[in-house]
Structures are given as C-alpha cells and as structure tokens.
Amino acid sequence: MSGYKPDLTSNSTLSENYSNYTSPTGSIVISGSVANGNTANFSVAIGFTRANTKGDIYIYNAATGNKTILKGNRFSTFENVYQFVSTEAVSRLVSYTSSSVTVTVSVFNGTGGSINLTSQTLTVALALYDAPIGNI
Amino acid sequence: MTDLTKANYTTQYTVDKIVNVIQGSYTSSALVTETHTLSGIGTTIYFFRVPHGFNRPVFCDLLTSTDNATFSDDGVSGGKIAISDSTYVYILDGIGAPSGGTTYYKIICTWIDNYDTTNPTIQPFQSPYKNTQFDSRNNYQKIYLQDVIRFSGGTFGATETATVNHNLGYTPNYKVWFEGLSGKVMPINFGGATNAFNFDDAQNECDSKMDSTKLSLQTSDFSGASFKAWYKIYLDS
Q1: pLDDT above 70 (res B2)
Q2: CB atoms B106 and A81 under 8 Å
C-alpha cells in the first residue's frame, strides 16, 4: 500500500484515532484549616475500566475559570486553578487501580503558622479513549 | 448550523493521527545511560530507548506499569514520561541506579502537524491490537486550533509567555508538547526542583492554563537557545 502525507491530511483511515468513549467527572472539595508543618489531603476517585484505555486528566476551577491538563507534580500560581491562601505547597497525586483513578490534592503548610484554606471545589474531568493498544 | 461540539466526528476538523504504537517490557539491563548536569554535578540518567520509525519527532503518549495490570498515564505522579527525538522514543526511567524489576510500556505516537516544512510520506498504520478503526458511537476529539510557538529561550532563568485566543466561550480540552531540550519533544512539565521529570539543569519547563477565551503558556528557560512548543485546542470539553 502506498504511503500518505499526514501533514496534508485532516483525517484518514490510513492512521488510527483516539476513540473517546466517555468523559466522566468528579469533584474535590477543599476547605478547613491546616496547622503549620501539617499536610491535608483531598481526593476523588473516578471509575473507569483501565484495560487498553488512554486517559487525559484535566482539573478545572469554576471560581477562577481556569483549567489545566494534569502534567507535573505541583499546582502553580500561573495555572490559577488551585486558589492559594498563602504560600502553601500544593501537589497533585494520581493513582490508579484496574477500575478507577484517584486524583489527590495534597496541601502542605510550611508557612510558619496555621492557615485556613480557601474553600473551593475543583472539578476533575477525564477524557477516556479506546486506544489502539493491546495486552502485553 | 449544526453545533459541531456535539458531533462525534466531522471532516471540518482534524483529529489526532496515531501513526504508531509501540509496546512491550524492559528490565534494567535494557536501559541506556546519559550523563546530564543536574544540580551542578554530572548525573547518570537512565532511559529505555526504542525507535519510533520516523525521521522526525512525534508526540508520545505513554502508559507504564510495574505489574502489567495497572497502568499509569505519563506526566502524572507515579508515572513516567516519554520523550521523542528524530529517531527514538525515550522513556525516562529514573535518576540514579535503577531499582530493578520489569516495566511494561505502551507508547502511542501521534503525528506533529507542521513540525517542519518537509511534508513527508509515511506508511499507513493500522493497529494489530484493535479490529475497529472507527466507531461512530464514540467521539473523536476535533482539533479546533493547532500550531507551533517559538520561544526565544536566550536568557537562563527567564520566563516567557504566550497566549492563543480561541474565543469559544467555554473551556476546551487541550494538549501541549514542547522541546525541553533541543530536539527533544516531551509533554509539558514544570516545577523546578520538585519536577520529577527534570533531569538536566539546561532543561526548559512549560506550564499551561486554559480559560473560556484563551490558552496561556509560561516557560522557564534554561537551555540558552530558542525552542518550540506545539499546542492543540480541541472543540471538545
């Protein structure tokens, strides 16, 4: 079979595609106080079948209007998705089972005093694809 | 006019073109090493390397597992990251001596539209792992905007920003890849000393956010040279 030029092709049956079969969401509610030196964790588990699935994970805050695709370990002020109250260090952790993904927002308070976190709700949105991958 | 945000597929918009899938497993004996300067000292970095089959970089999505049952997606905590140059896909296995065991990987390579002006011809790819090429019951994310952004990168430690207006009135899905090092295309990652995917003091970083009117990027420049970032903004959200 002859080749094709993907740069000049909008779509083609000569390549595979990401088939998005579902886009579930979940919420992480953040509130409360964190003493100096302590860590508070807030998480949500969203179910999906892991077998040969590729997932993109986004996190969105309606209050700030910003969404970010979950790459990297920490929330940044540039992203403006997590609403900082001080200089707390905020990490995002992702863990999987065969049937779910859990996204955790971990807040470490190293500011020197107790802080009251900004009450906020973060929406975790998954785009899940049947990917052209198989069992190993 | 039909609301194309509700359409599973339309010829009006490009979709992601998957041009190869590479999967398998490796142990520490298969790793290659490179020496990078990290925190001011020469450090051995371990990669698993596999040819992607093309003569220019591709976007790589990666899934890895240590038990061949539960896989993690790339760029997130607990996962690894895949980097492409003009020949290989590199899986960043780790900094320092490998811990051992078997890593199972699945690499999905998608085409970088307009990577350069060459417009090469490539062979068709149909996955041996799936029988269905297209399913009209499912959604195929429609690429509303995509292009390359060039950052000057000339000053060590400088921050650069770029904005792409989409004006969709809602917050769409998106993806960004960039050259962390010259000729090395990787998913966006950032975090400085806390960035688990940083393996070289000269590695650029890229951060992103999307709102209802624009995509915003911010870089931390460490390579001392210009570098590129590629974005895709989907009609889907």
Answers
A1: no
A2: no
Q: Which amino acid is at B70?
A: T
Tokens representing B80 are 């690894």
The tokens for B166 are 């989409």
- Look up the pTM and report it: 0.95
State whether B75 and A16 contact (CB < 8 Å).
no
Contact in structure between B77 and A102 (CB atoms under 8 Å): no
Q: Give the 3-state secondary structure of residue B28.
A: helix
DSSP state, residue A15: S
Total count of residues recorded for chain A: 136
Judged by CB atoms closer than 8 Å, whether chains meet at A18 and B173 is answered as no
- The alpha-carbon gap from A102 to the nearest alpha carbon of chain B, in Å, equals 11
- Residue A35: partners with Cβ closer than 8 Å, 6 or more residues away: A109, A114
| Residue among A5, A13, A98 whose CB faces B69 most closely | A98
Q: How does pLDDT run across B35-63, given as a tens digit for each residue?
A: 999 999 999 999 999 999 999 999 999 99
Identify any residues that bridge with B188 across adjacent strands, giving them in sequence order.
Answer: none
Nearest C-alpha in A relative to B188? A71
Separation of alpha carbons B74 and B81, rounded Å: 5
Residue B129 and residue A67: Cβ atoms within 8 Å?
Answer: no
- Looking at the complex, does the CB of residue A72 fall below 8 Å from at least one CB of chain B? yes
Strand duo A115-116 + B103-110: pairing: unpaired
